[in-house]
Every structure is written in structure tokens, then in C-alpha cells.
Amino acid sequence: MKKKAIIISSTLLVLALGGVAALNVSNPDWKANTIFASTRDKQLAWLKEHEEEIVKWIKSRHPKITSVDFEWSTYRVGAISNGVQIVGYNLSVKGTFNDNPDTVLVIDFSLNNEDSIPNMKDIRMINPPSIKKGKGLYIFE
């Protein structure tokens, strides 16, 4: 009887862990606003929540841009250094604009530390919107 209870409880535990793992693989956004959220999940959730504001900011700086498509998989947070010490962090996300896959747009946010949540007052574009022509990348005007 004891052996049977151990086998059943072990099976249920494996099924529960497998279900959570399958949920995480099929829909990784489920934990964005839960206690299980990592810093990356929280930052991506903030970016997705404020996507319209970010697009408005881009359009205000570059009126010829009519639409923006972000590639969320390109999200990166990296240290900014003056060569001696780390002086801040940069969060960046790449995307395309005007429904043209040959365009390149990178939006950046200045962060105090790599665990910070971005905010609209720290938005910037280190590089201007560009378009691929042949083997080169040219500023979009």
C-alpha cells in the first residue's frame, strides 16, 4: 500500500512539473505579471504595454515612418562603460518600419541598473532608422 502511494504521488508530481514546463514553452508570457516573473519578463511586459507610446515617440521624431514592427526576440540589456567602470545600462529592441523588411530600427532605453524597469523619459535612438541597400545600410530620410 505504501509503495502504491509513493508511485501515485511521484507520477502526479512528474505530471504537474511537465504541465508547468509545457505551459512555459508554449506561452512564455503567462508569468509576466506573477511572482515567477524574472526581470526580463517584467521589462518585456512593460515594453509591450507601452508599445503605442513608443511608436508615437518614434513617429514624432521621424514623420516619414508610418508603422513600426518590433522583434521582441531581439531584446537586449547591456552595460555601458567608459572603459574603466560600468556607468549605466542600455536596453534595446530592434524592429522594422513602414512594412519593409529591409529597414532597421533600434529603440533604446537608459537604465540605472540591469534590473530597472524602463520608462518613457529615458527613451532614445542611438542610431537613426536605416534601410538596407545592396550590402550597405543607409540612413532613412
Which key features would you list for this structure?
141 residues, alpha+beta, 3 helices, 7 strands, elongated
Write the layout of secondary structure elements.
Blueprint: H1 2-26, H2 39-49, H3 51-61, E1 68-70, E2 76-81, E3 86-97, E4 100-111, E5 123-124, E6 130-133, E7 136-139
Antiparallel strand pairs: 1-3, 2-3, 3-4, 4-5, 4-6, 6-7
Give a brief outline of the structure.
By secondary structure, this protein is of the alpha+beta class. The protein has three helices and seven strands, in the order αααβββββββ.
How many H/I helices? 3
Proportion of beta-strand residues: 25-35%
Approximate helicity band: 25-40%
Order of helices and strands: HHHEEEEEEE
Biggest sheet statistics: 7 strands, antiparallel
Which word captures the global form?
elongated
Number of strands: 7
From the alpha-carbon coordinates, what is the Rg to the nearest angstrom? 21 Å
Distance between the termini: 76 Å
Integer average pLDDT: 87
Could you say which structural class the secondary elements and strand pairing correspond to? Answer: alpha+beta
Low-confidence stretches: none
Q: What does it look like?
A:
The protein is an alpha+beta fold and 141 residues long. The chain is 33% helix and 30% strand. It contains 3 helices and 7 strands, in the order αααβββββββ. Strands 1, 2, 3, 4, 5, 6 and 7 form a 7-stranded antiparallel sheet that branches. Strand 6 (130-133) and strand 7 form a beta hairpin. The chain is elongated. The mean pLDDT is 87.
